[in-house]
Amino acid sequence: MRVMSYNIQVGWGKGLEAVADLVKKYDPDIVALQEVDRDRKRTGFVDQFQFLQDSLGLYGGYACSYQGPLEQGEKAQYGHCLFAKKAVEIEKVHHLYVRDYNLAGEQAWVIEPRACLQSVTNGIRVFSLHFSTVSDLQRKQAEQIAQAIKAQSDLPVIVLGDFNNSFYSEALKPLRFLQNGLEAIEPALSYPNGDRATDAIDHILLSSHFRVLGAQVVVENESISDHNPIICDLEIK
Predict the structure, then answer these.
(1) Whole-angstrom Cα distance, residue 227 to residue 201?
(2) What distance separates the 2 farthest-apart alpha carbons in the chain?
(3) pTM for this prediction
């Protein structure tokens, strides 16, 4: 089974067609895509989730991190999605912890709402997410998702997405009871895109049910997005 995660930067690089073509090239069974707009002015009022689902021909689910603002359109949404070759059952959208204030010197967008999509596909519980960019919020968000994972132990678990920090950071410590699917190739440099990548901030984390057969970072130098996609090939033990 192949699992993939990719922050697509709302298609601003080379467009959604290029995003879909890249995903299809690597043929994942499960793929999480972050930074996906729906009906927003800045991306031409395109329902990017629906466009990608139609292009990929996969089952899917969407997590709305926030709606609006109004100047972006009455139905504007921003979030991320999960696609899979098997049917996707959405169990819950976790609205992640966020402060209601900015720290001194922080830009206002730092405390924008974030979300995690909890779903089940092919007997696997998947938590696909996009964490905040600052460590104190990441720590709280990691604790929140760790608690949600531990509350249900009936299925194998995959957690994947853009965590905006190293797996080995103090902020993500609450999730280190999970296996790092990219461990064999660390540092798995995914940001910014291409050969210039300096940060390993996108991850695929696994419960003990899985054996990692291979892992890779797709070094993408065409600027389809500002992230490199990450991939794990897995089997259930």
Answers:
(1) 9
(2) 50
(3) 0.98
Residue type, 3: V
Give CA–CA dist 44/93, Å, rounded.
Answer: 26
Q: What are the residue ranges spanned by the domains of the chain? A: 2-236
Per residue in 77-95, pLDDT tens? 999 999 999 999 999 999 9
Element holding 149 (H helix, E strand): helix 135-150
- The residues with which 199 forms a beta bridge, in sequence order, are 191
Torsions phi, psi for 228 (to 5 deg): -90, 140
8 Å CB contact between 113 and 91: no
Provide the token pair at 110.
């730092």
CATH number of 2-236: 3.60.10.10
C-alpha 176/C-alpha 81 separation (Å) is 24
SS3 144: helix
| Tens of pLDDT, residues 197-231 | 999 999 999 999 999 999 999 999 999 999 999 99
Report residues of the chain scoring pLDDT below 50: none
C-alpha 154/C-alpha 16 separation (Å) is: 36
Round the average pLDDT of the chain to a whole number and report it: 98
Q: Which two tokens stand for residue 75?
A: 């139905």
Q: What is the DSSP string of 97-132?
A: ---SSPPTT--GGGG---EEEEEEETTEEEEEEE--
